[in-house]
Amino acid sequence: VALTGPVGASPSSPRQLTSASLRQLVCVEGVATKVSTIKPKVVQSVHYCPTTTQHSSREYIDATDPHLGLNAVDTTGREIPDRVIHITPSVYPTKDKEGHALETEYGLSTFKDHQTIVLQEMPEKAPMGQLPRSVELVLDHDLVDRIKPGDRVRVVGTYRALAVSSNGQQSSSGVFRTVVLVNHVQTIGVSTSRLHFHENDVPNIKELAAQPNILDVLGRSVAPSIHGHDIIKKALVLQLLAGVEKNLENGTHLRGDINILMVGDPSTAKSQLLRSAMTIAPLAVSTTGKGSSGVGLTAAVTSDPDTRERRLEAGAMVLADRGLVCVDEFDKMGENDRVAIHEAMEQQTVTIAKAGIHASLNARCAVLAAANPVYGQYDRRRKIQENIGLPDSLLSRFDLLFVVLDQMDPETDRLIAAHVIGGHRYRDDDGEDDESDDDQEHSPPQSIWQRRRRNAATNEDALTHDFLRKYLHYAKSRVSPVLTEAAREFIAQKYAEMRSRQDDRTLPITARSLETVIRLATAHAKARLNATVEHEDCVVAMDLLSFALYH
Asked: MCM C-terminal AAA(+) ATPase domain: from which residue to which, for each copy (predicted)?
């Protein structure tokens, strides 16, 4: 009998499983990080003795059997009184009581499928500064092969402590190994439980979407404490909205996620823009170039320390499936490690063929990366490719590449200084940009606008952090725009013009650039909550792409 639904008030995470939960039915949510291979486990063995020509059988029950400690039942389902199922010795017999050799009749023996999985708490739910907790799952029979690395699952099972380790040795330290004996497995999507829509939110979203300058409003609301970078902020909004992915009948996958790379001088707020995008996205995984390896970003084959069994372990891009991956210090990543993410950025899969394991994992995530120039400061006397120092094969996988320069302009510097000082002056009233909405999720709806006191003009207003997340989630999940005929002709004409231009540009113009325009235009149509991609969406997309290519 399979059990579904939460057990108790809400599903638990591996962090909430304590000794008080032992021998109880629990419901746990998390991300599968390590998945073992499926192995047969003997339930009943049948042996034949050639000397006596007799058959004998033996049943095996270990600590991972869910029926352990229950009353035994007969073939009709009735309980057998005064007989409780206990652990039986796992010694496989080779001789009978008289010392005669036994032969195993494998065709008559009974086996069951057995698999172990490590479930880690979701990255967005892990407390800041603490390592994510994990719990081991034990799956038998028809539950095996339901989960692959990177899947977000909800499992129902019994939390139990085992007196033996994975290799069968008795624990002598008094610290027992704990597992969840799974009864039911359910695959879930990206959790949006932290977003609580009030009755006024949807009407406000639809009213706001009708404004002609909706992208300007959304762009101002991303990192309002950072002055300037208006085009980059708009691009981040479109990245969070994403395009529409397509799976063609011939098996071709066209990604809808938008990849963005920012290259520029130090102290130009690149990392702050990354952090701001992380706080807005429902699912975001952060990493740095120097602290990441190729297998750490994609997937790795590891060996279990107890059983020496090979396992497939998911990396950051697999864990961020349907989310956002932020890679800071992208230029510090090793050459071999950068090659590993080529497939994940375009095909959005991670293929592993190592140690006898061949698997393909989903990595349907958008990549937001920031890098410094090769020479520390951007050298305007050199070509763009010489400053960036990344191969064209990798750059073409980025839809947009922004060169962020620290230009010395007295008027701009004065505006930046006034903006930063104003933020410090009124920080207590306006709140942090990346503040969590946990404390406000059950409060009554407030105004959707946050206003800076030094300038109360309407065209400088920005949306609150909580409402911005709701707007982007609603627009991304409710609308799947399609191209109109006018939009197709406009995109084809502009693409041909870009190919014919010989100007110095940041990215090579390839067929991927054509798909970039389609993705950006589709994301802008989502921002307007429109079911079709029209001419104005294509104009905005071309303006963004032209700024990224030639600015």
From this structure: 214-420
